Amino acid sequence: MSSETLIRASDLVLEYPDGTRALDGVQFEVRENEFIALIGQNGSGKTTLSKCLNGILRPTEGSVRIGDLDTRERGTTKRIVTKVGYVFQNPDHQLFNNTVHKEIAYGPRNIGLSGDEVERRVSEAARVCGVKEELFGEHPFFLTKGLRQRVSIASILAMRPRVIIVDEPTTGQDRRQSVEVMNFLRDLWEKDGHTVIIITHEMPIVSEYARRCLVLSQGRVLMDGSTREVFGSPEVLAQTFVKPPQITRLAQALGGYGVRRDVLTIEEMMAEYRRVTSS
Amino acid sequence: MGVVPVTSPLYALHPLTRLHTLVFLGVVSLFIDVPEINIALVLLILLYLRWARVDLSGLRIYLPLTVTVAIFMFTVSIAFPNRDPSFHTFRFAGITLYAESLYWTFASYWRLMAMLFGTIQYFSTNRERETLVAIRSMRIPFAVTYFLSLALRAAGMFLEDMRTIREAERARGLDETSLSLRDRAKLYAMYMIPLFTIAIRRTDEISNALFARGYTISGKIEGGGKRSDYIHTKYVFRRRDAILITVMDVLLCSAAAARIFLGAFAVAQSPLRHYFLTAVSG
Amino acid sequence: MDAATIRGLGWKYGGRDTFAITDVDLSIPAGSFVSVVGPNEHGKTTLVSCIKGIIPHSFHGVWRGQVEIFGQDTRSLSAQRLAQETGFVFADPEAQFTSMTVEEELAFGLENVGLSLREIEERLSWVSALTGIDGLWDKSPYEISGGQKQRVAIASVLAMKPRILILDEPTSMLDPLGKDAIFSILLQIKRETDMTVIVVEHNVEQVAPLSDLMVLVYGGRIARAAPPAEFFQDCDQLVEHGIHPPQATTFLDRLRREGRFHGRLSARFEDDVEALKALLGPSAGQGTRP
Q1: Residues of C in contact with B150 (CB under 8 A)
Q2: Which one of A50, B78, C48, C248 is CB 3.0 to 4.6 Å from C272, fit for a cystine?
Q3: Which residues make Cβ contacts (< 8 Å) with residue A30, sequence separation at least 6?
Q4: Which of C:46-85 have CB within 8 Å of B?
Q5: What digits encode the pLDDT tens for the residues A23-36?
């Protein structure tokens, strides 16, 4: 079963004006219906890569193709935005309209959809993101951080991109808020068939939700595999100061007892424990 | 303000002296109409920057500005000349040009360039910190200098936020390059909203952070006494600084006096002008 | 004398309908390391702000009860006295950095309280060594990372030698490397000084091993206050209150409820590993891998 490749980054190099190479030859394919986590320490290039994937940043060398669009071409912004959405970490950077409704409607209007279609998209995106209609007339500035994040996501979703990239969905949030956002993203992936890409530092979130992990270090891809493979390879991760979640490290510390190295959740640890103690 | 060199012989001078160069070079050309002197001044400044170890290639960003200004000034001068009947005229490419008027524009341009480079040299050799120390050594109340410092820091944060906001709006389908000029102007109004939102939220945080450090606007300490000034003491005001500042002040006053009372440095005294007018009329 | 004694504390922000915190009673022993945990917007920041004195100094609202630091009522102290007694580090490294260079930033608070130049120099050397920022003195805020900025923030607050150091989610905006650096600095502060440290954190996993006392703030009240070993005894209750204990601790709790583990729950990863190794016994190397 082959799934369609939605974004293809080939030999991607990105150099900043002062000469630093943020990305040094990256090969990366994003396929449909995936849940990918980009991990790596600050400065590894993960944020830069994500911005190349939707054309915010243009490659210095190499290319990024989104379907039949090449991000190096001019005038592609409006079309890219219907294919790849990007939600910034701080919603304040993206919200600039004075009502929630206008905010969500902005994207669809901007790409030239009819009035009826815009309305339809707004209702749909708001519903999916849990933004109630009563809030449509409110000014985003006065909403809570969580709600602003959801309005931000809704305004991106209203353009129906197949790929949605979210920068740090759970940073600074407590457990309940994190779970809410992540469950929402998981539903987008599982139920609505979107491809979700998250950039994050929180490894327990990655192990619980992401199926595929891209580990970046110094502008290069260190590892690209299933979450299980990646967290099961602590030697690779040690090169980039990324630590697997505590439960995985616990399993790895008990490797001498036959516990597998790629345990991702507490449930799995329980199962492994039972297996090992019953033999 | 990013081209400031890491090491430089310039740092032997106290920031106040360096601030003085800004005042001196920025103002002295006001009194000098003779373009030869102003051109020499610009060259001098460039040599000075070279000596101070500033990377001159970083100044390339000012090139478009100098060219644009030249084009603008000369176009206006040619299109709306001063048609004094005593002026020499000549024809060039089918247009009637007034020589004196044209030369006056030439002289004004170089005066502007001298002042511009006088300003550029200051900002290429001084970080914000030095400017603030210079201002503080003038015994201006701490609250004022601190306010300036905060404003500078806020401006810096603004710029960083601005970059992120532009990227964020790109992600919402906003393509700057495809917009008309009028729409682009509207765009900047739009950017202001997130900027201000963030700034407002930050103001709270900054004021709390200041409170946590015991900052008081008055600059006084309870139990009497003034605020210590540790940073200030890292810069030593030497005799050479006093001498240089005096020299600059004297030169500036002399130039002003010579211009105002003796009519020195007037454009009529420019040798180049003499040659130009002779060439045009003869 | 306790570092902080809180009796019947309540605070309602002006313009809001409900109290952010109510009926808070808490004693914080001098020299202890206290972590404050709980879901967002349930009162953690309000509580520590009251200890710091920012509330009610810079805020409008309704105050109830009493907060004393080393026997002095916070409402009676001036901003400068408060700054000298309690240091405060915020979550956002950007907003705290208000000067043009690291050195200025470090000296700022010290200048504000009028210390002598020599004293300032000594303190700067000391904090800069402790927080590992020796090479950064000349840098501007635009040249250093978020983690470095946060270390500068801690250093500049430490330089004032407060008796109480409060940190409000110091690591939430940092990457893992940055987080580790902050926690190791906190450990050093704990070891080398006798400061009372109060940390608000979401990262329970890394803050628990350092803590002498853990305080759970839920719905504006203190739901639990106990040393870590006791604190994690009822993992379910913690989860209900929005806290997730360290994964290893939760795992051991599950084993305990299935009757497979009878020891105490700790908050230290190394201890958990040892406990499990003891449980699994001498069968090391004989287990089968799938």
Answers
A1: 98
A2: C248
A3: A5, A6, A7, A8, A36, A53, A163, A195, A197
A4: 52, 54, 57-58, 78-84
A5: 999 999 999 999 99
